[in-house]
Amino acid sequence: MNPNLSIYDNLGGAEGVRTLVEAFYPKVQKHPLLAPLFPEDIRPVMEKQYMFLSQFFGGPALFSEAHGHPMMRARHMKFPITEERAEAWLECMAGALDEIGVEEPLRSFVVERLSGPAYHFVNTPG
To answer: Most CB within 10 Å of its CB: which of 27, 87, 104, 120?
Structure first.
């Protein structure tokens, strides 16, 4: 991990973020707590996640350019997100980071960076 670079650049830029998203969503689709929250056609969700993570990790503002301000908590309010689901989401992300070969300390840094938003989306008691 190069501390002088953004997470986006440390992950390998557009290609790295795309690879992460493509490793992440099969795990989400197989997870019993998460799969019911997602549509069968996951491609549009994957594209939005790619755009959001690119921006969130310090790359180009793809999400804002296409969809306006992220307002991610508001966008997720229609889904029952429990603390257990937030943890499951982070576990899937950690697994995807492992799968694509992201090493420490970058792996832990990415998971920690995503923990804030993941728990911020919690809107339903366990």
So the answer is: 27
